[in-house]
Automatic annotation (TrEMBL):
The record marks N12 as: Discriminates between blocked and unblocked aminoacyl-tRNA. Its EC number is 3.1.1.29. The record marks D96 as: Stabilizes the basic form of H active site to accept a proton. This is Peptidyl-tRNA hydrolase. The lineage of its organism: Bacteria, Bacillati, Actinomycetota, Actinomycetes, Micrococcales. The gene is pth. The keyword RNA-binding applies. TRNA binds at Y17, F69, N71, N117. GO terms for molecular function: peptidyl-tRNA hydrolase activity; tRNA binding. Monomer. InterPro entries: Pept_tRNA_hydro (IPR001328), Pept_tRNA_hydro_CS (IPR018171), Pept_tRNA_hydro_sf (IPR036416).
């Protein structure tokens, strides 16, 4: 049997944050679960989890959303990685990215956290930065709005119209990363849109 992949969407818990830009990673997990007819359930690692498959026969996917706030996501991620026996190289973190325009997906593996506190905490808890990241662009605010406030705001009306496409693209990127590897997924999702 193929080894499992741990796919984690970062965000903040509770209805107050559910539809905010900071929770786009968790929205992608919901899309991946929806595609498979799965429901996330409580797990002892302080997360909600669905065990499923990329396609019938494998590889196995563990879809997860930590119950903690973004900046302390590492504990649940490390707990799930240990519980399922998943090495950091088979962990995929899906998160919002201020430095990428809305409607854009970028993938990378390893490297720094780029100022993203959730990614920083995951790297610290896993004692490794060698995990893949699916970075979902939310763009930066116009004018003087503090980026810390921007990420905690809901998507605007124009963004909400395109959000299902963005979530679908990000879910496609996760699936291709697992199926075909990072380079193939980058070549597909970093290409300019036709």
């Amino acid at each position: 049997m193929a080894e499992a992949w741990l796919i984690v969407g970062l965000g903040n818990p509770g209805p107050r944050y559910e539809l905010t830009r900071h929770n786009v990673g968790q929205m992608v997990i919901d899309e991946l679960a929806r595609r498979r007819g799965e429901t996330l359930r409580a797990h002892k690692a302080n997360a909600r989890v669905a065990e499923t498959w990329l396609r019938p026969g494998g590889p196995k996917l563990i879809l997860a959303k930590p119950n903690t706030f973004m900046n302390v996501s590492g504990g649940p991620v490390a707990g799930l990685a240990k519980f399922y026996g998943v090495d950091p190289e088979r962990v995929v973190i899906v998160h919002d990215e201020l430095d990428i325009p809305f409607d854009t997906i970028k993938l990378k593996s390893g490297g720094g956290h780029g100022g993203h506190n959730g990614v920083r905490d995951v790297a610290k808890a896993l004692d490794s930065a060698e995990f893949a990241r699916v970075r979902v662009g939310i763009g930066r605010p116009d004018g003087r709005q503090d980026p810390a406030d921007w990420v905690l705001d809901p998507f605007g009306a124009a963004e909400r119209k395109n959000l299902p496409i963005l979530l679908g693209d990000a879910a496609d990127a996760v699936e291709q990363l697992v199926a075909d590897g990072l380079l193939a997924a980058q070549q597909t999702h970093h290409a300019p849109r036709a």
